[in-house]
Amino acid sequence: MNDQRVGANSSVFLRNAWYVAAISDTVGQALQPIRLLGTSLVLYRTASGEPVALEDACPHRKLPLSMGRLTDDCVECGYHGLTFNAQGQCVAAPTQERIPSSAVVRSYPAKDRYGLLWIWMGDADLADENSILTIDTYDDPGWHTTGGDSLTVHCNYLYLTDNLLDPSHVAWVHRSSFAGEGTANVPLQIDETEDGLVVTRWIRDSEPPPFYKPLLKFTGKCDRLQHYEVRFPSIAINKGVYCPAGRGGPDWVPDDESYEMISFNFLTPADENTTMYFWLQHRNTDIDDDALTKEIAAGAKGAFEEDKVVLEAVHRGIAASTTRPINLGLDAAAVRFRKLLEDRISRETDD
Question: Which of 326, 344, 330, 347 is nearest to 6 (CA)?
Fold first, then answer.
């Protein structure tokens, strides 16, 4: 990752971190192969519902264990029956007099949180489940969480973090949904935090974007906050605040007319060319309106699919190009985040 131009690809990942691997209820008592950070894993649940993540390769001839079968919470290889428990230890070797000491597969810490399955891809001794992202209002009865959804995006995950640190792109990519007055040219504030980067701006006295206008509890123009945040390794938190014009700004105080929407975006690299994109939508109004929830969920997915089309084309274009991509002023946050992430990866690999 020594090339910090937006668009520079990377096959290096931060491993001592939690990544979302799946929506929890899509993983059951069946062997499910996936790729995370260029590594092949097999997921399943024990009879008691505990998630398991193992290296998807039998140590004998590297046949994927996902091609075997699940029996009594253990995985039996489909080639010669070597059988591994949830910790990756071989518990049966039918063709051998004794179990070979080298018959071990790597296991990865796995935890369910917020309806998502998280995997720790680095040193298991460093896996602290308390370091999984905290969503303070997740169980707050005054907020509604739209259940998780996902897309597979055929681009490097850094193109997605670039995009989610760039509020200006909505003026062109999301013309019919998130775009609105000021999204193209109101200056941005960029701040580094302990665990990432935040880009914010208040857009004053403007018409609400088409997506949000019917959701607001007031009429007329608004003050609008765009809060775009990426936390290491690749969790993007986008927050929108809408309040009547004249009430917004750094000293804004929530009231009954304020509308808040938070999108939690989890960008998990399958490899350097493919990203698993998961998200949750969180709002502070109309929490019991199921029809509205479905409408918001569909609108959000539609917008993310617009991003997918653009970013997949960006990935292909840069991969095929014989000239280097340039940076614009709007790329300042993306460039800075890449440098901060590179520093973390360098420290990890140096340890």
Answer: 326
